[in-house]
Hints:
Blueprint: H1 4-18, H2 23-46, H3 49-79, H4 84-88, H5 91-108, H6 126-129, H7 136-175, H8 184-195, H9 208-240, E1 245-246, E2 258-259
Antiparallel strand pairs: 1-2
Amino acid sequence: MESEPSKDWRFKLHEVIYESNTPAGKAFDVGLLVAIFSSIIVVMLDSVVGIHQQYGKLFNITEWVFASLFTIEYILRLVSIRKPIRYVLSPLGIIDLIALLPSYLSIFFIGAQSLLVFRALRLLRVFRIFKLGHFLTEINFLTQALKNSVRKISIFLLTVLTITVILGSVMYLVEKRENGFSNIPESIYWAIVTITTVGYGDISPITPLGKFVASVVMLIGYAIIAVPTGIITHDIAVAARQKKELPESCPSCSREGHDSDALFCKYCGSSLFK
């Protein structure tokens, strides 16, 4: 059985690393974001040939300092919770690992250091800083709304994909190969570019009938743009009426999003409190 002093230091370490409602936790999160921003700036500057030739060695040393810091931080995250495998397999844990691997891959693979830009994914942790203010509830609303919208958005995207396949095939029959619509996949590409209102202009209809079909595709594009917005807005309103959640993360698996009256983690069953 784990000794009481061991429980105390692990609990305190968890508070610093995973919680932002204490002075130490706030300082840790702010320092982490500063380090992430700084490391990304170093990677971007190092990609400029002139700057790399002048400060390449300094950037290399700086990069390994950041890599060491992030490695230590990742290990501390694993040590401070009772079920580290749950953190490793969690979304933030996967992001942390993806952001950390390129530093070590660059030892074995030439050019892998360019993958260090994946470290920008760790900027998603900026949402933890919102715990310093009054934005946590709004973030939880948005997260819940996006989860509730997945099935609806998937059906919507499937419908749009079906429409683009049909309209692309129609345009292929109308415009023929000589007008740039050389095959059905190329015509479907045109339909996607048009219906999303991007309009690269690399392929365009020439015949009157083709221009009429293109006009229909453009109008459909404007009509469907508002659909995903409406779906997500509705789900945000629904989420706003639901029960508020605790800002604390589970000391065992680091997951958040528990009900305000919860005593145990709904993901791993551990107690949420010391």
